[in-house]
Design a protein that fits this description.
The chain is an all-beta fold. Helices cover 0% and strands 46% of the residues. The protein has no helices and 9 strands. The strands form 2 sheets. The protein has a 5-stranded antiparallel β-sheet, with no helix packed on it. The chain is globular, with a radius of gyration of 15 Å.
């Protein structure tokens, strides 16, 4: 984790390069032994945390979901992720204050979106919190599918 906007994929946030001593010492949401996506939040609200373009069926309702956790034991600056699809905001999420190994938890965030006439969806997660210190988090089980 070399600074704002950096990320790491691994099984334990406390083992990420540059991790602080109070970072989450535990596993992913799914099994506790798989990988998670650990992010040092960017200092710009236009920098994508994650982005993918997928084909969609017109006039279909989709669900976008992910699990998120704070990696600092007790953060003064919580991640606030916004989901954008095709350039429009679908919703925002504020992460729990503490890491899962310090009274916090992995939390599921779910949003729905109707494709209308679209045949593709540009899925983007943006961290609206632009504070450089303490803005560190983990993501797991990102999914997007028709209802």
């Amino acid at each position: 984790m070399s600074g704002p906007g950096a990320y790491w994929i691994g099984a334990n946030a406390s083992k990420a390069p540059g991790a602080y001593g109070d970072w989450y010492n535990g596993g992913d949401h799914t099994t506790g032994t798989g990988n998670m996506f650990v992010v040092d939040g960017a200092n710009s609200a236009t920098t994508p945390v994650w982005e993918e373009v997928v084909p969609v069926t017109p006039n279909t309702t989709y669900t976008f979901s992910f699990w998120g956790a704070e990696v600092d034991h007790d953060s003064n600056s919580l991640p606030r992720l916004q989901v954008n699809i095709n350039g429009g905001a679908v919703g925002t999420s504020v992460f729990p204050e503490n890491s899962p190994d310090n009274g916090g938890k992995w939390e599921n965030f779910t949003f729905t979106w109707n494709s209308g006439s679209s045949t593709r969806a540009d899925l983007v997660l943006i961290d609206l919190n632009t504070d450089t210190p303490w803005n560190d988090f983990a993501l797991d089980d990102i999914s997007f599918g028709a209802q």
